[in-house]
Design goal:
alpha+beta, 3-stranded antiparallel beta sheet, 6 helices
Length: 175
């Protein structure tokens, strides 16, 4: 009987501080996962907004409004950034566009600005096209990631990830 009481007392030792130590062990991974989830959600929202902005701005080309107003790549970027609502600040410095007439939708030969792991804007162009032309509008948006391990997994060279949106359409007969 005495032995069992002694064992019971040993098991009931004070455990003050155990919860704090356990929390300390899991707090860093928990917070990292929490921030990573938030950042992934932010990237998905940003990608959706970018995609919508390219489609809506491409409509100006499709309907002939861009040709009538003498749009350049800078005008296109400005109108696109205006449509990016909460992401519009600093957008002009983060976005690159390529709008071109393509001969057909099957196997168009297009420059890839992401070759070699770094972005290069050489080869990008802007064309409004004529009525009936097939147009491909693409936009690349540079976004800096804040979660370190997420940046290693998603970014190409540094902490920047590049989001890309595109739309293809045939110009309407606006003449």
């Amino acid at each position: 009987m005495r032995r069992s009481l002694l064992n019971l007392r040993r098991r009931r030792r004070p455990r003050e501080g155990a919860a704090a130590v356990e929390f300390g062990m899991i707090a860093l991974p928990f917070l990292f996962m929490l921030f990573a989830i938030a950042e992934i959600a932010f990237v998905f929202v940003l990608d959706s907004v970018l995609e919508n902005a390219v489609i809506e701005t491409g409509r100006l080309i499709r309907t002939g409004q861009a040709s009538a107003q003498g749009f350049t790549a800078d005008n296109f970027k400005s109108r696109m950034c205006d449509r990016m609502t909460v992401f519009a600040s600093g957008c002009l410095g983060k976005v690159h566009v390529d709008v071109r007439v393509v001969g057909s939708y099957t196997n168009p030969t297009l420059p890839d600005p992401m070759q070699g792991g770094a972005f290069s804007a050489t080869g990008l162009t802007y064309q409004n096209g004529a009525p009936g032309n097939l147009i491909l509008a693409r936009a690349w948006y540079r976004h800096t990631l804040f979660t370190p391990f997420l940046a290693q997994g998603l970014a190409r060279g540094g902490a920047d990830s590049w989001l890309m949106a595109s739309t293809a359409f045939q110009n309407e007969p606006w003449n």
